[in-house]
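Hi there, hope your week has been kind to you so far. For a while now I've been wondering how a particular protein folds. I'm sending you its amino acid sequence along with the backbone structure tokens. Could you read through the record and tell me how the tokens relate to the sequence? Take your time with it, there's no hurry, and the full record follows here.
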Amino acid sequence: MPDSSPGPRGDLPRSFLIDMDGVLVSGRTPIAGAREFLARLEERKRRYLLLTNNPIYTPGDLSYRLGKIGLEIPPDRIFTAAMATASFLATQRGAGGTAFVIGESGLSEALHEIGFIITDHEPEYVVLGETHSYNLEQITRAIRFLAAGARFVATNPDKSGPTEEGIAPANGAMAALMEAASGVRPFFVGKPNPLMMRTALNHLGVHSEQTVMIGDNMETDIIGGLQAGLETVLVLSGVTSRSELSRYSYQPNRVVASVDELER
């Protein structure tokens, strides 16, 4: 379990992959104990990475937004589904690849950094990410590119997400619409795909045997962590309640009320 004792390999301290929503923040408010938990990680020189399926913002943007609510997390400690998607495409196609992109700056910047060209002229890929507003004309063009032979990659499979006004459709719902219209199935890179976990481990420079995944969602954080060979900790400060645990055929290694209980 996540504490100050040596990990399974006996010689290295534990590292952490930490989900954001429901673990460190709830809406625009830090979860009680989150600041103190991060301070303990810094004090003990723990290696950690904030791991989020949110592809809208760049790490710099997220760092700034979190800092405004009192969570000081530098950009190099943040890894997004957009970054994981770009890493995947770099291994698949590399610099010079072309993509028609639906998304925000977090996604387009990540793709530019690997040398991809964003274009609406015979793209090799359609890359779908979350956006503040979906444009029907843009979606229709993407569907036509898919029908013409473009490959379909999406940042994250979340079908809905919370907003201050209530539930809203998310990337997985839009991907389902595009798949139904084009007949092309998307490849989702973000959680629960263990590929995102492994890409994050490489980014952090740590081994799965020494790393703990902390999350609030059994269907993304916990199953993704288990499939990537990580120790898992479920916090009950987000979308999962203790009463729901029994319906899952897999279980986390540890369940806590919040991150305030960790690294004590």
